[in-house]
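INFO worker-7 received task bundle
INFO bundle size: 2
INFO processing item 0
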Amino acid sequence: MKTDISPKLHGLSRKSDKNEYGKKGGAGGKGTWGAPGDEARFHQTINRSDPNYDPDETEPFTLDEIQPRRTRNELKKIVDENISMFLELGDQNRYSNELRQLTNSMFRFYIVRKSVSLGLHDKDWAVKNLVTDRRLISQEHLERGLEDCFQLAKDWELDSPGSLNKLKAFVKSLEDKEYIASVFLPSQLYFLENQTSIKSKISDELQEFFTSLDIDEFVKFVVELKCRPAHAYVIKYIFKQTLEQSNAKIEFGARLLVALSETSGTGPITILEFMRGIELALIESEDILIDHPNGQLTLSQLIARVVVDECLPPAFFDSVLSLREDAAGSQILNQAKEVYEGHSVSATLHTIWAQEKSLEEE
């Protein structure tokens, strides 16, 4: 009995054009059709009404060139050049866009620090326009960059007297426009005037902590200190003093870092303050390692550990632009990244200091 075939199904019929796809011509085996290269000799018809039609597979497309990954020093050089060109030419839209594309949000505070250091005295209006561009700089990064400037102001004062007063006036103008919190400037000035006694107090409290191992008590001390500019030095001093401890106490140092981080839910120290504290330790690492020549691996493991424990994001490894590529701090940071990216890193770092070992067994 002959059955009518719908035109839509004609292409599926065994009685459709016999030679539509050409003869096998001896090529191929059972279940195959044609020889390699035959597909280039036959015209393929695209049916855009076909339910299996995928425009991504058939429409023209271009492949973007993959840019090689830049080192921290290469990135720093490009960022510095863009800031210098902006201060010279004043094309804010162009250079703001370029800086956004060049940098991840983790280290845009560096743009604040660098632009203020270059343009504070004669280009302060241009600097203000750049650092208050909310598409580029958040309030948190603005305050973090300005905090660095206050710590650098003593050196600036030697080269250009009046730098500190100029910086104060610049920050006050930002405060008046509500670009930064009203407590920012008073807290910075308080820390500048009292930093010697504050740092001494932090060091003493840490010595007490490594005796008592009371994490809650030390976190309470930092909260009651009520001095945000001191938070970075808390982190720096923990890294320094942890190198002097036994393996079991190093583990407690690592736990203390987690407890102090805001990512723990109760810690008082923000991610950017945490970053700054580790950066300070890395900058001084050559001096630190003079007293602890075997401490490089421990520092690397501690940094990797705080990333594993989510105190910092992995992007931190590529976000420290203040280090020379050949500096000891860069070597420690690169080693920390290797440790972090190693196999079973979480399990390794959580047992490397024998946290199951009791202190009484030492």
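INFO item 0 finished
INFO processing item 1
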Amino acid sequence: WFEDGQEVPFDGARTSDGIVQWVKSMMGPAVTNGMPGAPSKDKPQMILYADSLLPGFLDVAKVKRRQADWHFVEQQTRYPKVTVAHLGEDPVELTGYSCGDKEKVTKFLDEHMLPLYGPMDGDTFDKYMEAGKGLIWTMFPPEDGDLQTVVAKHRSMMEEVAKKFQGKYYVTYTDMDKFKEAIDNMLSVDKLPAIAVQKKAGDKKKYVYDGEMVAWKIAEFVKDVDIGKIEPKLKSEPVPPPTASAVKHVVGSTLKSEVFKPDKDVFLEVYAPWCGHCKKMQPEYEKLAAKIKKEDLSDLLSIAWIDGTANDSPVETMDWSGFPTLYFVKAGQDKPTLYEGERTAKGIWRYIRRHATKAEEIKERLARKTASENRGAEL
């Protein structure tokens, strides 16, 4: 889409109805004259107060008309001002000659695109993820099913926190009636009220605070997270009891000690219980583990798996988003190698024999065992 020679990327739904709706939203004036009503719940409201419509403000409005509602209020004033406001929050001001500077108006909107204390839901989740900043999730007990009552009760406190970390963290609230299960799975929060901090939106490491809900204590907690004084809360299944299985069952709390070993190579499968590819691979993986056990190589090699939906990785160098994810970790190393070869017992075994830390010793042991078995057969 081009307006006055300026390119505006299409960001609507890729359907006929979505394209029509998007085109309609791009037609008509980018800036509306006159004092508007309250901001909408979907996007911020940008208002220019000046004696004339400043070209820099208009240029930004044309490019970002879908990101905000744009208004001009004619006012005889020596110093113009631009305000940005979100529903339920006080406006923030940009004043003076910056109001006509295209770059400064753009930066001003970008910095305040999302509210100080805003809803985290299906409509806003992608916006927070794409913004790339940290997140402070607030989770308060529901009150008679009315989310806005809960928000109003805690808004003043959480806006105070938000102002301390503006530019680094967004502060959000969530409907704990509607999204409780999703929040439990994502943030490992098992009691309310609670605050969860992610240093970057979408980060699997989260830091959970469930102490006294007062602004200064919450702010202190966030500061302690930033300087590394707080350990992340990692999702982990209980440590399983020992079994006769040749495959080692690893959980979040044991991953570091069971997979990153000083004297043993480990091959790890990260699976999901519902994953069809994982189910298809399971008998091959068990065959591989049985082979290593049969060849008396368990002191050099370990075959392990972990449920990636029920456990988090405590290791920066190991992560997963799809299933199965396969890693090979050599003895004494802290960086795993992502395996992308055949998902068969033979294929993985060939890879291990080729890349093992003690590949020569494995080769020699297998040769000795084969020779011994041949002599036994001759007798």
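INFO item 1 finished
INFO post-check item 1: The first strand starts at residue 2 and ends at 3.
INFO post-check item 1: The radius of gyration is 29 Å.
INFO worker-7 idle
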